[in-house]
Amino acid sequence: MDKQNIYFTTRHNIKTKIRKVFFHSVTIIELKMKTYRYFFSVLLFVALALLAGCSALTNQMNRATEIADSTPTPITLPTQLSGQARVESQTCQVAELVTIQTDKPQGDLMAWSPTGHALAFVQPVNQYSGFYIGDLVIYDAVAQETIFTSKDRAVFGDLTWSPDGSALAYAALDQAAGVYTVKVVTLADGVEVDIFGDEARTEEFASQKGILSWTNEPDLIVTSICGTDCVRQYQYNKVSQTLNPLQEIRYNENTSLTLVNDIISSDEYWQISIDNNDNSWITSGGEASLIHSTEEATFTSTVDSRISLLLPGIELKEEKFSKDSKYLAIRTAEKVIIYQLGCTTE
Is 229 left (phi over 0), alpha (psi -120 to 50) or beta? Predict the structure, then answer.
């Protein structure tokens, strides 16, 4: 064999070996890559499983925390009220109703009839939520139903019953004119009378109105702003439907639109107390005595005095006992809650 043939044969053999080595290396690399991909898949699966397990454990811990957090903390009887025997309950909830919200003086926004168990209050027009004005609603606590809803949808407040319970006076907003007025509704026929009529504007602004009292069955005393530091009193006669101006007083002498709370029932058997954490307590069986203001009311416990938690941790805006002391109505920021006294749901 000549040198040239040996050269080409050798070159061919070398190329063949190189190809074999190259393809063998590629095959090894591919096998390794497949192995790595397999191990990577296994590792990824294990990691995902661990993450899922941690998530489930976290959820279980969160649920356990929620369950633990939802357990109510016992509310301790304040020291100043500890002279009474604590009982679980002394009331039955009759109704929970929606009322308007307010952050300014609007007088009484709840009022019990002087002759029965009908409670007047102001309800949002949409019966869900509203501020400052709404419908006048009367709810019968015994029948547990609404027995009257006003046609007027802009009742402002200062709800005041006539002595015989046949009529109710209230301050209202004339939304078209942008002034306040006072209306009297007769419950037997639902007729609403605007006692100021076209004379409702008594100053250049909104002419704020208020109600002082019924002096007797037909006569109602009301007020209206008449200028800077000027409040004019009026007398309205329900029978003749006449409105007569009386004296003028200053702002600081005007007691209309003043909210009056009942701390002690009229029979002096029940008392509402509120502690520093806005927990409301109701006490029965003590010897109550009213001085000049509800803030100065005192209640002396006796052997038969009992106290129970009425409403925990909610600020009360207004409290009213029915005239016969059988029912209690409380108003929070958005609700009116009516309780029957002297009973239990147990």
Answer: left
Query: In terms of domains, do 285 and 191 share one?
Result: no
List, run by run, the mean pLDDT of 10-residue segments along the chain (346 residues). Answer: 45 48 42 47 51 48 47 76 87 98 97 97 96 98 96 95 97 96 95 96 97 95 98 97 97 96 95 94 73 44 80 97 98 98 79
Residues 128 and 211 in one domain: yes
- 247 and 304 Cβ atoms separated by less than 8 Å: no
At 273, the amino acid letter reads: S
Q: What does pTM read for this prediction?
A: 0.76
Structural domain harbouring 209 = 106-258
CB atoms within 10 A of CB 269: 17
